[in-house]
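Researcher: Let's do a round of design. I'm pasting the structure tokens now; please hold your answer until I've finished.
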């Protein structure tokens, strides 16, 4: 299909174009021409044209590469699925890009959010089932529930990396629907659990089949969005997560009224019907998800696909200019054992993994026990489910707000610190309240804690951005999510049955973890600031010819290159 707008049209209109790869020249200068210039001149127009983030319009803290590059250094591999649309001299208007991003949001991000809704529906409806006396029906107690959740998260955790590696080999567009259909079957079959053994078995199978789903989707979104756009899209991702909690509360309100129908408890109907809904979304995903921006043609999506030639040119070139490493692998290329080991041992990513291991814990027990806490406070089954909704609404508002603040202020870890500052006084209040406190006061404290600042989207985006290569991004997304699931295992065992109803001991532990997290957020920021400062000094001390030689000969890859800058 012919391009509707040309570079000449943009220039004639007077609109500022989103430039070619080389911001001050339409064509990259050759190496020989650089050799003939002075160092001062070379700093102005060399192939490694210095910029704030690689495309010249964002603060320096945004990370990734500080330089533009000669096509010989940044050209995608021949197998890259968008190689035929790569053009370092291509220009487009900002209005075109904005329109295209809106189209991506409607076609790609919205469906990814729907799939995440399906995940959380089957993963989270256990809390609604608890409010319908599931534990009593199965002759189980709180400790059995904790054990079941621990089994789920351990299986979920250990499935993360294998799932991500399979996704990289098969392609997320194929693997994600397979996961969804598989776990929806198990989720529906939970309607037939009869006691502790079958409960544990179902939680284990769900963990194995759902593990890796989140990093699979993050990898998929990175094919379509730039590093600047990804945090906001990930916040939509987790809005879908918490919207599920609101919608499922209303669904549970209706479905649980089926208790006694055909001799089944309400919670059995809940598992069966919500699992069926997830399965339908999974089957549609098989034909809906395109493999990449340039591979949208199909019988379902249309013979012409979703995007015309110019839109594909814009998508490919804006992605590569934002992060050239995205052209290093194609979307169905597996990692070699050596690449896997290199990514696992990338110590520059470890501060993020440490954060994943603990930052969610202060809010986690109350989130998992919210319905039980409200029931213990004297609220009925249906009141309990409806009273959880304000916490989830507050959660969504804070998620969107703080993600926006982090990008607006260009401060990721300091924004993350807010989550712990918010939680600490609430935990202290829960620890010091008298046993006779009113039900509504307990509800208010619980709601504020569950609805606290959720900075997961910010940290996930930093993981993707600081990886510096598709290889490391694939592994790092899984490893970060593994640490998050490990934190869920820890969090599931902090509130113990013998400690209820006020959980004094558990709250003391949470207060200590909260203080530790504050130090960790600050430590991660200073670590990446120090790394950037050291590299910048080395890079700035090099002459233009030395920089050119470095780019031509270095064995450094991804976030190990001297011109790579970490976001913080």
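Researcher: That's everything. Go ahead.
Model: Designed sequence:
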């Amino acid at each position: 299909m012919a391009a509707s707008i040309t570079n000449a049209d943009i220039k004639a209109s007077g609109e500022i174009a989103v430039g070619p790869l080389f911001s001050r020249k339409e064509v990259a200068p050759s190496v020989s021409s650089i050799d003939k210039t002075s160092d001062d001149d070379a700093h102005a127009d060399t192939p490694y044209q210095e910029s704030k983030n690689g495309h010249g319009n964002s603060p320096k803290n945004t990370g990734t590469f500080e330089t533009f590059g000669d096509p010989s250094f940044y050209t995608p591999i021949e197998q890259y699925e968008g190689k035929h649309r790569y053009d370092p001299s291509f220009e487009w208007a900002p209005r075109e890009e904005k329109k295209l991003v809106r189209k991506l949001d409607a076609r790609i991000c919205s469906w990814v959010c729907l799939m995440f809704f399906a995940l959380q529906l089957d993963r989270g409806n256990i809390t609604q089932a608890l409010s319908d006396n599931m534990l009593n029906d199965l002759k189980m107690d709180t400790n059995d529930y904790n054990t079941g959740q621990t089994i789920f998260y351990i299986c979920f955790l250990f499935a993360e990396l294998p799932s991500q590696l399979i996704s990289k080999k098969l392609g997320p567009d194929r693997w994600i629907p397979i996961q969804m259909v598989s776990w929806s079957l198990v989720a529906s079959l939970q309607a037939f659990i009869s006691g502790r053994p079958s409960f544990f078995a179902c939680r284990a199978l769900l963990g194995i089949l759902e593990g890796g789903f989140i990093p699979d989707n993050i990898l998929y979104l990175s094919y379509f969005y730039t590093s600047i756009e990804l945090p906001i899209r990930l916040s939509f991702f987790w809005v879908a997560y918490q919207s599920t909690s609101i919608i499922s509360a209303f669904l549970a309100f209706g479905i649980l009224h089926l208790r006694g129908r055909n001799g089944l408890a309400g919670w059995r109907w809940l598992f069966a019907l919500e699992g069926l809904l997830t399965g339908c979304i999974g089957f549609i995903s098989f034909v809906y998800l395109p493999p990449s921006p340039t591979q949208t043609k199909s019988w379902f999506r249309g013979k012409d696909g979703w995007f015309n030639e110019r839109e594909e040119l814009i998508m490919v070139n804006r992605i590569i200019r934002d992060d050239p490493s995205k052209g290093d692998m194609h979307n169905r290329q597996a990692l070699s054992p050596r690449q896997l080991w290199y990514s696992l041992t990338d110590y520059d990513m470890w501060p993020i993994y440490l954060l994943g291991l603990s930052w969610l814990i202060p809010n986690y027990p109350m989130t998992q026990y919210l319905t039980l806490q409200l029931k213990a406070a004297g609220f009925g089954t249906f009141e309990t489910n409806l009273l959880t909704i304000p916490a989830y609404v507050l959660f969504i508002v804070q998620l969107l707000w703080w993600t926006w603040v982090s990008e607006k202020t260009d401060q990721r870890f300091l924004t993350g610190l807010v989550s712990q500052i918010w939680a600490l006084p609430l935990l202290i209040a829960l620890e010091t309240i008298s046993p006779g406190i009113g039900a509504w006061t307990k509800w208010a404290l619980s709601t504020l804690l569950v609805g606290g600042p959720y900075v997961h989207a910010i940290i996930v985006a930093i993981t993707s951005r600081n990886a510096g290569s598709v290889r490391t991004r694939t592994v790092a997304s899984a490893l970060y999510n593994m640490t998050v699931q490990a934190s869920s295992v820890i969090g599931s065992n902090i509130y113990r049955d013998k400690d209820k109803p006020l959980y004094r001991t558990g709250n003391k532990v949470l207060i200590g973890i909260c203080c530790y997290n504050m130090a960790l957020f600050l430590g991660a920021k200073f670590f990446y600031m120090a790394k950037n400062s050291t590299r910048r000094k080395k890079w700035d001390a090099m002459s233009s010819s030395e920089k050119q030689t470095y780019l031509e000969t270095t064995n450094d890859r991804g976030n190990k290159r001297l011109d790579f800058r970490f976001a913080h």
